[in-house]
Design goal:
Blueprint lengths: L4 E9 L2 E9 L9 E10 L1 H7 L3 H4 L10 E9 L9 E5 L14 E4 L4 E3 L6 H23 L9 E3 L5 H12 L4 E5 L5 H7 L3 E4 H4 L11 E6 L3 H10 E9 L13 H5 L3 E4 L7 H14 L2 H6 L1 E5 L3 H9 L6 E5 L3
Parallel strand pairs: 8-9, 8-11, 9-10, 11-12, 12-13, 14-15
Antiparallel strand pairs: 1-2, 3-4, 3-6, 3-15, 4-5, 5-7
Helix pairs in contact: 1-11, 3-4, 3-9
């Protein structure tokens, strides 16, 4: 029917969660200022968790429409910030956790959660960037704020073939940094070289504890995995350097010492892309439009139809998905 639309819905019965496509109407949507006709969403690691058995650790209330980001066109607005026809994106703000997310053909959201897309970024590219690319930009901006500049030593990117890592490599290379990519997938080196990486390190070399302070190898780093890998990276960052950390795929622990911080002045910069303030958020999107090579973004992006989302989500948890996966919710 014309007044219904498709959405992926997570429900819970007797403590057991289930995921299924359902037909919804506008009356089913939660309160908000703006109705968006969604064109695309993205597939991120957190989405993979929600769709493959870790719903209780991410989803906080049911029923839930998952999908931590979306892009589309404003269809209705009671907010002075947006008018019908505006092209917008939303990332973070609890989407897929406490608020309905992007795996739907229509969404109703608070106006403050939306960002107007800057010139040069259409809805497909907005979700090719998505939460992952937005997070990568925040991580790079944090390194810049910490005065990590292009120079003799490279910047390391861990989990480099993943969504955040891929965009971080492309951004840093465009900005003039020498980039070393850490990955556990040697077959991805040509892909990463195409994004701008000039050197590589095997993830296994970082996954084992070494000395409290190691040789100064990097001016800074973008870490997407956490745990022992982050701890090792901290020991290899040069005096006055910094590490932006934004992921925990390897674990939430951090088995390190204070020595990198008190003997080399290394800064550990936490990146929270979920509740990032509005002005910083808009600045990051402006920077993405200016500094992210769109040809490289396109090269790292694959578009999949809505019906293939569940199958593809299992692959991202296994580390079998590289770059960015965009979900066409109308296909």
């Amino acid at each position: 029917m014309a007044d219904t639309f498709k959405a992926l819905v997570v429900t819970e019965t007797d403590g057991k969660a289930a995921v299924a496509f359902k037909d919804l109407s506008l009356n089913d949507l939660p309160p908000g200022d703006v109705v968006v006709r969604v064109a695309y969403s993205g597939l991120n690691y957190k989405d993979g968790l929600v769709l493959n058995g870790n719903k209780g650790k991410v989803v906080r209330k049911f029923p839930m429409v998952p999908g931590i980001d979306l892009a589309g066109t404003v269809e209705e607005s009671s907010s002075p910030l947006y008018r019908k026809g505006d092209v917008v994106a939303a990332t973070g703000w609890g989407l897929s956790e406490t608020e309905w997310g992007g795996y739907t053909q229509k969404a109703r959201l608070k106006a403050d959660w939306l960002v107007p897309l800057p010139p040069g970024i259409d809805v497909k590219r907005a979700m090719a960037i998505g939460t992952a690319g937005f997070t990568a930009m925040l991580a790079v901006m944090a390194l810049e704020d910490a005065r990590v500049k292009p120079g003799k030593l490279p910047v390391l990117v861990t989990g480099a073939a993943g969504g955040v890592g891929s965009v971080a490599v492309a951004l840093l290379a465009k900005l003039g940094y020498s980039v070393t990519a850490a990955t556990g997938r040697p077959d991805q080196q040509d892909y990463l070289r195409g994004l701008g990486a000039s050197a590589f390190v095997d993830r296994a070399q970082l996954a084992t504890a070494g000395r409290p302070l190691d040789k100064e190898l990097y001016a800074g780093a973008v870490d997407t995995v956490g745990s022992q890998i982050l701890a090792t990276v901290l020991t290899q960052v040069a005096r006055g350097g910094a590490v932006s950390t934004c992921g925990n795929a390897a674990g939430i622990d951090l088995p390190t010492s204070v020595l990198p911080f008190i003997l080399r002045g290394v800064a550990l910069l936490g990146i929270d892309s979920v509740f990032c303030p509005a002005e910083r958020r808009r600045e990051a999107w402006r920077r993405l439009a200016k500094d992210l090579p769109l040809d490289k973004l396109d090269a790292m992006t694959e578009v999949v139809p809505f019906g293939q989302l569940l199958d593809r989500s299992a692959q991202i948890l296994k580390g079998h998905v590289r770059g960015r996966t965009v979900v066409d919710v109308n296909a």
